[in-house]
Design a protein that fits this description.
Helix 10 runs antiparallel to helix 13 (301-309). It contains 16 helices and nine strands. Helix 14 links the parallel strand 8 and strand 9. The mean pLDDT is 96. Helices cover 43% and strands 14% of the residues. It has 380 residues and is α/β, with parallel strands linked by helices. Strands 1-2-3-5-4-6-7-8-9 form a nine-stranded mixed beta sheet, with helices on both faces.
Length: 380
């Protein structure tokens, strides 16, 4: 049963957060106090001060509650979602799926232009009805009650959700985990999904590659393979922890708001573009903190880690091709390669961009909106 939902965080929870922030105990800075060893103490201290003194959760809560929200139960799991209908009667339904360490907050700047393009200088023919779910175990869809939340299972749940909402034909879009879930929706409901759009690609290239195969790649593709190697060397630690000991890491993240913030901001700095620019110069402090608040207020650091990285398929696993037309918008930070993505996806549109990072909806909303509109224009 689908039930209306409104976010209403008790004042006692906000008071508790304020007390914890006021009593923050920061670690001593490591030599250099720079991003090479993690989030710098000097930088995080300033963001924590802003969080404590200037950030307004109630304003963020009101912004989220301005959109219709609902909960339902599918496959034994509570699912929270936004459903924002377009004023245009012929709008195409579209599911937007976030990733980790993101949330539904990623898509706030997309809602108006996608649902009401005329009001934002666009064409009524490009309108969408939006369904924006919180991934199982994330935020208001958390925690999880059982195991096995693979991309395939989430894709099947999204297909059931769209059935419950009465949508017979629809598109899907996502990045990060959402980029893996979106093609899974198409595999679960290939007769209903008209198109799959991903930022960052629907699948990762195999790694490592033999030297002779590497030599056949373009310079751009070789750079992407090299950056996968760098990621596995220098950045894989969080996946190792979250995929093997999500409960252990959850104690610190659920008990310490600053610990939760640091864990998330480490990735926002590493994955926004360009790397040398601090994340708050790319995404506003308020947006960054609202995203972190979703994790903090719901206490879902552990279940989000459990769902996000306790997947069953090893790196580079090839999956069944749904045959559904698929688009890829690859930003400068992304590492997807077309020849490998085509092995299990029907790629009909591929766009490489020389700027932009991992959090496309937050970093490059206008470009993402334009690409989504153009891709689905011929699929309606």
């Amino acid at each position: 049963m689908i039930k209306p939902y409104s976010i209403d965080i008790p004042q006692s929870a906000l008071d508790d957060l304020a007390a914890r922030l006021a009593a923050t105990r920061l670690p001593a800075p490591l030599p250099g106090d720079d991003w090479d060893t993690g989030v710098p103490v000097s930088w995080l201290a300033e963001l924590v001060d802003y969080w404590r003194a200037k950030y307004d959760w109630r304003a963020a809560e009101a912004e989220l509650n301005a959109y219709p929200q609902f909960t339902t139960e599918i496959d034994g799991q509570r699912i929270h979602f936004l459903q924002v209908k377009s004023p245009e009667p012929d709008a195409l339904p579209l599911v937007l799926t976030h990733g980790w360490p993101g949330s539904i907050v990623e898509f706030l700047d997309l809602i108006g232009p996608l649902t009401d393009p005329v009001a934002h200088g666009g064409d009524a023919a490009d309108a969408f009805h939006l369904v924006i779910p919180s991934l199982p175990g994330f935020g208001f869809s958390g925690p999880v009650s059982d195991s096995g939340w693979s991309r395939e299972r989430i894709g099947q749940v999204w297909a059931v959700l769209m059935d419950q909402l009465g949508y017979e034909r629809y598109g899907v879009q996502g990045g990060d985990i959402g980029g893996a879930v979106s093609p899974a929706v198409a595999r679960a409901a290939r007769d209903r999904v008209v198109g799959v759009h991903t930022n960052g690609g629907p699948s990762l290239p195999p790694f490592p590659l033999p030297e002779e195969e590497l030599a056949t790649l373009t310079p751009l593709e070789q750079d992407r393979i090299a950056r996968i190697g760098g990621f596995l060397q220098k950045e894989f630690g969080y996946i190792s922890i979250q995929s093997t000991r999500p409960q252990t890491v959850a104690y610190g993240l659920v008990d310490s708001p600053v610990g939760q913030l640091a864990w998330i901001m480490d990735k926002f700095r590493a994955w926004t573009y360009p790397l040398e620019t601090l994340p708050e110069a790319i995404i506003s402090k308020d947006r960054l903190l609202t995203n972190a608040m979703i994790y903090w207020l719901t206490g879902t650091a552990g279940s989000a880690a459990y769902v996000g990285y306790a997947q069953t398929e090893p790196w580079g696993t090839r999956l069944e091709n749904s045959g559904v037309p698929t688009a890829v918008l690859a930003f400068a930070h992304d590492v997807c390669i077309r020849r490998y993505a085509e092995q299990d996806n029907t790629i009909t549109r591929w766009t490489d961009v020389d700027h932009g990072g991992h959090f496309a909806a937050l970093e490059e909303p206008d470009l993402l909106i334009s690409d989504v509109r153009e891709f689905f224009r011929d699929l309606r």
